[in-house]
């Protein structure tokens, strides 16, 4: 007999419900704004982030020996609920890896830029910290390098998610297609 956690059921339900809720990718609060709710970041008519804290384009890996800035594919977005007092009990974490045959895709899908961000929104609405990552794509890198990118994102999440109210001992990894 298989048992599905009520949190997973709630996240899946909210993912289905939130598909039409767009995120304004230009909204990028700093980590220092953790304790300030962002009820209407895109303006009064944008309900997508109501009750949600969101941080976009956080680098999870950078080769410090390189003079170049971090690879844009080495970035992630973090979502959590702004409801409830701080500090609060650490929340479970869901790290989402996008699909795309390892050759295309991004946490911000080019034709549907809010597609995977909705996973983060759904997690936050279910009191789960949502982390949505990008990774480098083939043929520019090998599959092993892509796996290394996902591992780096997971390591970053384990190390840093406590700053966002997440529990590093309760990280769940999931994705779609190649990300699964």
Describe this structure as you would to a colleague.
The chain has helices spanning 6-17, 117-125, 143-160, and strands spanning 52-59, 75-81, 91-97, 129-133, 166-175. The chain is α/β, with parallel strands linked by helices and 180 residues long. A 5-stranded mixed beta sheet has the order 1-2-4-3-5, sandwiched between helices. α1 (6-17) packs across α2. The chain is globular, with a radius of gyration of 16 Å.
List keywords for this structure.
five-stranded mixed β-sheet, 180 residues, alpha/beta
Radius of gyration based on Cα positions: 16 Å
Please, how many helices? 3
Order of helices and strands: HEEEHEHE
Count of DSSP E strands? 5
Oligomer: single chain
Low-confidence runs: 11-46
Question: Roughly what fraction of the amino acids lie in strands?
Answer: 15-25%
Strand order of the largest sheet: 1-2-4-3-5
State mean pLDDT (0 to 100 scale). Answer: 77
Report the end-to-end length measured between terminal Cα atoms: 23 Å
Structure class: alpha/beta
Estimate the global geometry from the Cα principal axes: globular
Taking the sheet with the most strands, its summary is: 5 strands, mixed
The helix fraction, in percent, is 10-25%
